[in-house]
User: Fold these one by one.
Assistant:
Number 1:
Amino acid sequence: SQTIHQWPATLVQPVGSPLSLECTVEGTSNPNLYWYRQAAGRGLQLLFYSVGIGQISSEVPQNLSASRPQDRQFILSSKKLLLSDSGFYLCAWGLADTQYFGPGTRLTVL
Amino acid sequence: QQQVKQSPQSLIVQKGGISIINCAYENTAFDYFPWYQQFPGKGPALLIAIRPDVSEKKEGRFTISFNKSAKQFSLHIMDSQPGDSATYFCAASKGNKLVFGAGTILRVKS
């Protein structure tokens, strides 16, 4: 069966510091991978998605970037965090139209 | 045309009652309509999904009703239980990207 991991689970970072969040998927090959952000009490905002290694599509202009160095690894990064980057970051994997979410990373930027 | 409108924003139901959440879409190209359940601090979990070639799908206490001509679909939770208290998101897709509704916070009172 497929499993999706995200780490860290929680993170507190100062404004201006770098960020690296990691997502890995087990039990499937060549999945579509997604990064979402969820602000407190709000809906899901798609940030990036990838259909293959090195292929990244950005949905919204922002302070973040994504990379897919391996088939089942998806990384979300920032060079300098802003206060507005705080939120709950969710990674998801999918085949065709169905998506399955990871446990999420709670990021607080102070 | 890419929006999915979800209502109500919040819902309080007595234990044993029926919870009903509604969604409407504009893009007639959408061909997959999932519902997700999210508990606080957790990633959304796929609950049930439907394709437009059927008008209803039932899994246990959860039923999706789909009205293609009205471009609406709804989630019914029968015999609602306190453990069903969560945020519910509808979504729609054509291809590998989901468009999410804003979410409904359901509270089931015991």
Note: Chain B has a mean pLDDT of 95.
Number 2:
Amino acid sequence: DTAVSQTPKYLVTQMGNDKSIKCEQNLGHDTMYWYKQDSKKFLKIMFSYNNKELIINETVPNRFSPKSPDKAHLNLHINSLELGDSAVYFCASSPETSFHNEQFFGPGTRLTVL
Amino acid sequence: GDSVTQMEGPVTLSEEAFLTINCTYTATGYPSLFWYVQYPGEGLQLLLKATKADDKGSNKGFEATYRKETTSFHLEKGSVQVSDSAVYFCALNENDDMRFGAGTRLTVKP
């Protein structure tokens, strides 16, 4: 069974559109994350979220917003897509209780904005 | 703030060669250290980790030792295989703030 899953795997869309990427984890973790990986493979944290707190990387445009319907899901909604948003987006999760914990990653969603 | 610096790639080796990918970090306290691997078209997978000084993480023939005195966590493997071709990320976690290095692409040729 997949621990952290994302849909869709590929997303191709036009500039200006609004799109969402879904993420679900079945690990019972309290904290979930969204990362953006650019074409040079550099990983950048966008958000971390648990049931108490949303931490936003200050460099993330407010066109990006995480939405969590419940503890197992953290979806990423993007308004007014721009060419520079093209990247691979990874969802991840970890237990809340210890800062020693690793993060478990989803397979990624490759977003292409035309 | 905390940060991770790893050697720039790409690294190209022949099968059975010795691998070292250097990683150094800066942190205010005592982070946990990780190596993640990303195979083509896939997400990141944890390769190994170490949670305190002098700990050695190991998995699939890869090893890395947490060196507090040199703030390093270099990844090594004695004999690489073609199937080890991937991008390797060094990372640290301090107070649930995970920071990744830029990644090092390894290509192993038969």
Note: Chain A has a mean pLDDT of 89.
